[in-house]
Amino acid sequence: MATPAPHTEKPHVLFFPFPAQGHVKPALQLAKLLHHYHGFQVTFVHTEHNRRRLLRAHRPDALSGIPGFCFAAVPDGLPPSDVNASQDMAALLLSLETSVPHFRNLVADLPPVSCVISDIEHILIAAKEMGLRCVTFWTTGACAFMACQQCQQLVDMGILPFKEAEQLRNGYLDRTVVDWVPGMPKHIRLRDFPSFIRTTDPEDPMIKILLSSMACHRTTPSAIIFHTFDELERETIAAMAGILPPIYAVGPLPLLVSQIPVGGALDTLESNLSKENHACLEWLKGKGPNSVVYVSFGSIATLNKEQLVEFAWGLANSKQEFLWVIRDDLVNNGADEPANVLPPEFLEGTKARNYMTNWVPQDAVLQHEAIGAFLTHCGWNSMLESISAGVPMLCWPFGADQYTNSRYACSEWRVGMEISSDAKRDEVESAIREVMEGERGKEMKRTVMEWKEKATVAAMPGGPSWVNLEKVIREVICLAQGAEEPLAEKHSET
Ligand code: UDP
């Protein structure tokens, strides 16, 4: 952005993202933008568990903060666990309510907070009760959020919870089309809904959390900031305008943040909970354009031994070079050491054309010209990063919003090809060959390059996402407390 928006005083914004990698990373990106371009004071809240992980992964001063940008930490209510591994997300969702008193104490100790930005229901509600302006920053796509917003309707229609476990197994989810959701394509099926709905338990705690959190985001925040861009999800965003507070699409954030000049103090503020292996970029340097398959299942998804072995042989038999992120806790939640599960013949047979590591600087990897395709679990950040880099995807959704993301990537944006959840090595091999060498792969590459262009335009100074960011600052975050709340219809044209 060429000119920072004029402000007479510097607002103090408190960020408290849901404490998982895929939420913390875009939240820090948004915080950096508000600080760098608008001079906002920022307090960024981690859980103590994540604070330990971050400090372990980076320098001891990685969370010391810089002038006007501080970090704080609160307990998450869970017992201590392995500092190198992702926590149990369901347990975390259930325990976060216990962070509220710590959040209240923190706010009381800080300089006056102008606005709280969070995606945690309890934090938004507490902030509002304390008389603070609060804004939801939703870090997954608008499409999955819209699907989640329909869950109350699914309950009211008697669809949710499912009557029999059979319905979750025998293709019922695949066959059942949900063609009545405003702003969503008519071909969306129950299978494409976030996986939280896959329950037969009327008391399922995840469904209860989902329903109450969706209600909270309709009524509590003054606005919802989405990590997406208008062109990508225009119809969904337009349909949501009628049921939600004002919506602002401000992504893809990595493209906006990349415009902050390097070498400044903000560079020292890290959000990766695991230590990145930068040597993989050296390995990529020697590779031809579009010649390497990048494989990563994000920070939470886990595989069983058989799945890992099938992916390994699929990669080996495809004869392509590949860079594979295998987290220490990837196989059975860390119960199995990946090195002990991968067959020695696979390791020997692919050693000249593979690079396997625990964690990489994914943005830089995807932006590397050597990457030809991304075999992904369809986490929202990964998908936006892949689109932003013009890399076609092989989609293997694992859970949560990833089913919705995969459906959109394959059937709407046409930048991905789905692999079955129980895919064996032959399917993996042929999907990799198709995306790297086949006609469908070429078509996906052409389409994703068009999306890359649209994402780039959205993130350019003066582009829709910059404009939306300025609007939410002006119309919501900087609006004086007690001033008139912005009206949804004022923003429907965004
Ligand atoms: N990521 C990374 N290095 C890796 C793997 C993942 O930096 O080796 C980042 C990735 O760039 C993305 C985030 O971790 O920003 C994962 O978020 P996503 O929404 O894709 O998936 P989740 O981990 O939430 O399932």
UniProtKB/TrEMBL annotation:
GO terms for cellular component: cytoplasm. InterPro entries: UDP_glucos_trans, UDP_glycos_trans_CS. Coiled coil: none annotated. It holds the Pfam family UDPGT. Keywords: Glycosyltransferase, Transferase. GO terms for molecular function: quercetin 3-O-glucosyltransferase activity; quercetin 7-O-glucosyltransferase activity. Its EC number is 2.4.1.-. PANTHER family: GLUCOSYL/GLUCURONOSYL TRANSFERASES, GLYCOSYLTRANSFERASE. Belongs to the UDP-glycosyltransferase family. This is Glycosyltransferase. It comes from Brachypodium distachyon (Purple false brome). The gene is LOC100832572.
